[in-house]
C-alpha cells in the first residue's frame, strides 16, 4: 500500500504525516493486499477566516473495484483526519466483504443438486 499526502494550503509537518501514516496502516492493514494507493488531501477551506474548515479527503484505490472516497470537514484537523480514515477503513472492508460473499441464486431452496434430484 502506497500513501500519498497532499497539503497545498498549509505546511505538512512530521507530526501530521506520522499521525496519518500510523492511522492509515492501522485502519487499512486487513485489506492491504487489495489496496494500490491511498491519497490524502488536506485543505483549509476558509483560510484565515476560521470556522469549520479543515478538510480531509481520503481516496483509496482498490485493485479491481471502484475507488473509495471519503471526506470529512471539522474545526480540528486531527479530528477530521481520524474520522475520515476510520470511515474509509470501514467502507473498504464492507466493499471487499460484499464482493467475495457468494450469493444464493434466486428461487433455489437449499442445495441446487438436491432440489433438482427431488423434481425428477
Question: Largest sheet, if any?
Answer: 4 strands, mixed
Query: Which geometry do the CA atoms define?
Result: elongated
Structural class per helix/strand content?
alpha+beta
Cross-sheet strand order for the largest sheet: 1-2-3-4
Q: Can you give the helix content as a percent range?
A: 25-40%
Count all strands and give the number: 4
* Unreliable runs: none
**Beta content:** 25-35%
**Mean of residue pLDDT?**
83
Radius of gyration: 21 Å
Question: Would you list the SSEs in sequence order as H and E?
Answer: EHEEEHH
Total number of helical segments?
3
In angstroms, what separates the terminal alpha carbons? 53 Å
Question: What's the gist of this structure?
Answer:
With 120 residues, this protein is an alpha+beta fold. It has three helices and four strands; from the N terminus they run βαβββαα.
Descriptive account of the structure:
It is elongated, with a radius of gyration of 21 Å. Helix 1 (14-28) packs parallel to helix 2. Strand 3 and strand 4 (68-74) form a beta hairpin. It has a 4-stranded mixed β-sheet, covered by helices on one side. The chain is built from 3 helices and 4 strands, in the order βαβββαα. It has 120 residues and is an alpha+beta fold. 38% of the residues lie in helices and 26% in strands.
